[in-house]
Structure formats: structure tokens, C-alpha cells
Design a protein that fits this description.
By secondary structure, the protein is mostly helical. The protein is 58% helix and 0% strand. Helix 5 crosses helix 6.
Length: 113
């Protein structure tokens, strides 16, 4: 669901292909924070982490998989956020200061001065 909130087709490259086939120039989407994005910056990753760690039986193999996948996601977030700041500038930097990365309601919102 959260992919459709931010444009599912752009996220998976389908919009870029469609525009290319129509000989149209790609334009960046405007920065927005719909739905889940008001509570955490990366709701897609939260869903993946829940899926990796939610298991009725935690085997050693599953523990290793979940640990490596979690580490990968935490590293990927750093690269993604750097790119988002490059693309959206101050809007994303402000959003990053106000909204927690993965755990909702754990980040104090800055008071406006």
C-alpha cells in the first residue's frame, strides 16, 4: 500500500519506461508525505523488517537471514536518504528532522522557533 502512496510506477521504474516510450522527458515527482509517511520515513522497510522478524519459529538460519537483511536495509537507508536530500533539498532535510526513520512516535518533533 505504501508504494502506491508515493507512486508505485515511479518507484519500480515503470513510469520512466513509459515516458521514454512516449519520447517524453522524465520529471521528478514533488516531495510529499502521504499516509504512513507522516509517521515514519521508510514504511516500506518497516514492512520488510516485520516480515523478516515475524516468524513462529526462529531457526538459526532464519536468524542469520533476518540479521543480514536488517543490516542491508539499515545501510541502504543511509544511501537512499543521501540521494533524497540531493533531489529534494531542504524539504527532505526538514522532514528527516521531524519524522523518525523506522519506529513511529519515537522522535521528538522540533518546536518551531
Amino acid at each position: 500500500m505504501s508504494t502506491f502512496l508515493i507512486n508505485h510506477f515511479d518507484l519500480f521504474g515503470l513510469r520512466q519506461v513509459w515516458l521514454y516510450l512516449q519520447n517524453k522527458e522524465y520529471t521528478q515527482l514533488q516531495f510529499a508525505t502521504p499516509g504512513f509517511y507522516k509517521y515514519v520515513r521508510h514504511p516500506l522497510y518497516v514492512g520488510w523488517l516485520l516480515a523478516f522478524w515475524s516468524t513462529p519459529t526462529m531457526t538459526v538460519t532464519h536468524l542469520v537471514f533476518a540479521s543480514i537483511a536488517t543490516a542491508y536495509i539499515l545501510i541502504a537507508i543511509q544511501f537512499e536518504e543521501r540521494d533524497l536530500i540531493d533531489i529534494h533539498g531542504k524539504a527532505y532535510a526538514d522532514y528527516r528532522r521531524q519524522v523518525p526513520m523506522l519506529l513511529p512516535f519515537t522522535h521528538r518533533r522540533q518546536r518551531e522557533v
